[in-house]
Write a structure and sequence with these properties.
Layout lengths: L7 E5 L3 H11 L4 E5 L2 H10 L4 E5 L7 H11 L4 E6 L4 H9 L5 E4 L4 H44 L1
Parallel strand pairs: 1-2, 1-3, 3-4, 4-5
Length: 155
């Protein structure tokens, strides 16, 4: 990622004040997209490339864990972070096991900690992407070598 490109972060929370605070705190450093529900978050994911997803756990209609489970069905690449103001151990366990979260953060979040977590999450996203590219290249080169070997054996 060059310095002009920003990390795309989707923050999902049913509380508008939290969304506005998050966007105000991080919009200079990251490309912040916000959604007031899991359904709205899924609509954004259908249109935008998202590197890091942060979701509140306690939301009406769809919890954060349920949202992350839905995300995994179509969008396994974004790194997932669960945010909650409640010490709901079962939600955290579900998030780790079913939503494959990278990190769990308690509300209220600390701005410096959040920046570090987002940057580290993007680094994992980026490394996975590079790894896929290297595997694709390796597969292609291997196929070419096999072709050349077959040609040599035939002649």
């Amino acid at each position: 990622m060059d310095s002009s490109e920003k990390v795309n972060v989707l923050y999902v929370d049913d509380e508008l004040n939290n969304l506005n605070s998050f966007k105000a705190a991080f919009r200079r450093e990251f490309n912040v997209m916000i959604a007031t529900s899991g359904a709205e978050g899924l609509e954004i994911l259908a249109k935008e490339t998202v590197h890091v997803i942060i979701t509140d756990q306690r939301m009406p209609e769809m919890t954060g864990v349920d949202f992350l489970i839905e995300v995994l069905k179509k969008y396994s690449d974004p790194i997932r972070i669960l945010l909650t103001g409640y010490t709901d151990v079962n939600a955290v366990i579900d998030a780790v096991n079913k939503g494959h979260i990278y990190y769990y953060i308690n509300k209220p979040w600390d701005e410096d900690q959040m920046k570090i977590v987002i940057k580290n999450a993007y680094e994992i996203f980026s490394l996975r992407e590079k790894n896929r590219g290297l595997i694709d290249t390796l597969t292609e080169v291997n196929e070419q070598l096999e072709f050349l070997l077959r040609q040599k054996l035939i002649s």
